[in-house]
Specification:
By secondary structure, the chain is α+β, with helices and mostly antiparallel strands. Strand 7 and strand 8 (157-164) form a beta hairpin. Helix 1 runs antiparallel to helix 2 (27-81). The protein has two domains: 2-81; 86-215, Sandwich (Jelly Rolls). The longest helix is centred in the N-terminal third of the chain and has 55 residues, at 27-81. 35% of the residues lie in helices and 34% in strands. The structure holds 2-acetamido-2-deoxy-beta-D-glucopyranose (NAG) (2 copies). The site of one 2-acetamido-2-deoxy-beta-D-glucopyranose (NAG) has 6 residues, from strand 4.
Amino acid sequence: MRLTTAALLLLCENLIFASGTTADLETSELSTKDKQLTCPLKVCTDVLKELGAAEQQIKALEIRLANSEAQIAEIKKENQDKPKVAFSASLGSNGFVGPLNEDQTLVYKNVFINVGDAYNQDTGIFAAPVRGVYYFSFFYHCATDHPTQLVLYRNGKPEAFTQHNQSSDSPENGGNGLTLLLEKGDQVYIVLLKGRWVWDSPSNLSVFSVFLINAM
Ligand SMILES: *[C@@H]1O[C@H](CO)[C@@H](O)[C@H](O)[C@H]1NC(C)=O
Ligand SMILES: *[C@@H]1O[C@H](CO)[C@@H](O)[C@H](O)[C@H]1NC(C)=O
């Protein structure tokens, strides 16, 4: 841009110089030449003005670009710092759990992932590491000689059930999924109710999963 401006300035100087040399010419010719020369000179100053304006625009764009780059860097950092929570495990019982004499928190033993370490493999309890919106799902497969009833609990309070009743039918599949806003430290776990049973095989048929959608 600066080079173009310099080139145009040179061009303008040459035009002024050309105008000077016309002094040797006949007066009549000179007047017409002068008329011809004033026009390119005006064009020249107009172009310079436009160039100046363009340079201003580029400066403004450079500032906006620098701001955008700073914002992108900030967003990248925010993304890096964002808590990442994802857990998934199958019951890993390789057979029936239950029927039980009392309600029991299920410990899903066969852990696929536990990003953020929010799931406790010894207790079966998922504890929210941050306040946020979380998605939960819990599926099962089981025979029907006894009923199956799984309940998703939050802090001692039932939130959602999945179940089938006792029947002479072939095994059942069931499941449920829900989204909850959890406070930091809230505990979520799956409870198998008294008198019920559930089943899992090496095929991982009964799986409990959680992931954080967004910290709030
Ligand atoms: C399942 O059994 C319960 C009682 O244990 C009963 O209230 C419920 O209606 C039954 N559900 C179905 C779908 O039959
Ligand atoms: C069940 O999960 C375990 C552990 O992740 C894996 O090794 C196994 O292959 C899975 N079984 C099937 C049938 O996918």
